[in-house]
Design goal:
heterodimer, A: about 220 residues, B: 4 helices, disordered N terminus
Amino acid sequence: MIYEYPPRDAPIRQGDIFLGLPRVEVSLGRIAVLEEDGEMSEREWREIAEANEEVTAVFPLRPVAAIVATQDCDASRGRDITLCEIRSFPDVERKSQNTVSPKSWKNILTQHARINQKWFYLPPDETIGFPDKMAVDFMVSLRVPRLELEALRDHRKARLNSVADEHFRERIAEFFRRYPYDEWYSLNEEELQAYASEYPDTQPFPWQRVAAPDEGLDE
Amino acid sequence: MSSSPLVDWEQAMDRDRLSGSANWAVEGAVSVTSSTQTTSIPRWLRHASLTILLAASSVSSFADPWAQTRQQRGRATMTAVFRPCRRRRISAIEARRIALSILYRAEEERLRIAEEEAARGIDWEDIL
């Protein structure tokens, strides 16, 4: 499909797919801390941060599949490498959880991909160990030491081929280049009314006027 | 310091609506389903019992943006000293439960947000 299978000694590159990397989940709320006396305590992160304190804490971690997001230069020299988690496609894009027909999949994987830029589709591949459709979730990132990842290269199962690699590079760049804007800013009165009926909290811009429901078009 | 009442961590551990992690299989292992309707704790979650001890250091190669000057830090530390400490002694088992509850909450919230997002916009099944 869209994958290549590099030799073990190939340098780590953007688009390399690894299995079994640690994903840590942290909290900025109440956390478990190992105190200097060897006892455990439950503490607020805010308190720790305000005291500028160095602590040892307990967080959960589990092995996940992930793809190298760090671009190649940094992946060969930097101290850390950033990856994004790979999960089952319906987990990442919930619109697809009941999708069955090829036509619907086609719509989601092509058209919807242009709308929702938060993921990158990965097709199934038995060699990698992907039995089903998968997706890179740009919202979930991991950071691992480069040298230790290089020592764990046998966990690299594949990398994106040149076509997919270029697309992945552009997609992840697009994801981080998005900026928030109020999409209704250019709607006329009737269009804004239609929009507001779906999103009641919409605040019109000074140059917009929302038609009241009982206002006719011939005013 | 007296202990506060325990949160019902057992309830948290029985939640079965978490999405799976990577739906992948490796030689000798079993693929994990991504079903959110499982009635037992998924295999990946059993492996999630691994916990780590982190050293959360405030030291960086250059001054952290939020790190304060020595004078300001002194004031902040003094403030922290006189702020009521909300530290509570817990057992290692409780520490593990706190850690796992962090994981459960994160996965639940992620799933909820994904569901909300999926509910918006085009329903591709309806497109002819």
